[in-house]
Design goal:
Shape: globular
Low-confidence stretches: 2-33
Distance between the termini: 80 Å
Radius of gyration: 21 Å
Strand content: over 45%
Mean pLDDT: 88
CATH class of the largest domain: Mainly Beta
Order of helices and strands: HEEEEEEEEEEEEEEEEEE
Structural class: mainly beta
Helix content: 10-25%
Largest sheet: 16 strands, antiparallel
């Protein structure tokens, strides 16, 4: 076989291998989508979210602040609205999340949450507005349980067990956030104070390799108190909490 023929044969083999890998990948995605099928009974859910680590009474407000290595400040403002949204016959509470970069709004999200009778807080979707230079850019990241194959997931479990891993959401190729429980009974210190009996979780998604965070939820305030970005090292801390 002459060198040119050998090279052509090699290219053909490479193309076949890549095509086969792509077919396996997409077939595997379809398989995962069919395997994950949470059974949702509307009567089992309530908007009265009292989870030890993540209580969400209407009127609760939380503010988180951080500064990255470039000096860019980020502020996250969260408010639990006194209204609800029905999704597939489940009434959900609305968790309004606004993200500001150097004082400019870059994202506004309405997350839809409800608590199962076992205490787990479920995530039924989100409506996302992404902004650039003050103008609405797109709605990337939005999903609603039951629409276009999207499925609800668990935001926060009532019982924290090290080693647990679960889906927070599932919208194939669009929203596939995962959460792993890493540790319990931790003490966490921030500028706002010291918190005990906290749980540490690892949030990640197969859709974005650079999106990896450690988060700490503490029963003293029934809230998230600290976010650590594992890519940048940036820390976002709870700086203000208003209870109704």
């Amino acid at each position: 076989m002459n060198p040119r023929t050998r090279m052509l044969a090699g290219i053909i083999v490479l193309v076949v291998v890549i095509a086969g890998g792509a077919l396996w990948y997409f077939a595997n995605l379809r398989s995962m989508a069919s395997e994950y099928n949470p059974q949702i009974k509307p009567a089992d859910f309530t908007t009265n979210i009292t989870n030890k680590y993540f209580a969400l009474p209407a009127g609760k407000k939380m503010t988180y602040e951080s500064t990255d290595l470039r000096g860019i400040t980020e502020r996250i403002e969260i408010e639990i609205l006194n209204e609800s949204k029905v999704i597939e016959d489940v009434e959900t509470a609305i968790y309004l999340d606004k993200v500001y970069s150097n004082g400019q709004l870059v994202e506004e999200t309405r997350d839809y949450l409800a608590q199962h009778k076992n205490g787990d807080v479920w995530y039924f979707g989100e409506d996302v507005n992404n902004f650039f230079n003050g103008n609405l850019l797109n709605h990337s990241g939005s999903f609603i349980h039951g629409k276009d194959g999207a499925k609800a997931g668990i935001w926060m479990k009532a019982e924290q067990r090290v080693g647990d891993s679960y889906r927070q959401e599932y919208y194939l190729g669009q929203a596939e956030d995962m959460r792993d429980t890493l540790a319990t009974g931790l003490t966490v210190s921030t500028k706002s104070g010291k918190y005990t009996d906290c749980v540490k979780v690892y949030d990640w998604t197969p859709l974005e390799k650079n999106s990896r965070e450690h988060k700490y939820y503490c029963p003293k305030v029934s809230s998230l108190v600290l976010i650590e970005d594992l890519e940048t090292g940036q820390r976002s801390e709870l700086t203000n909490l208003v209870l109704p």
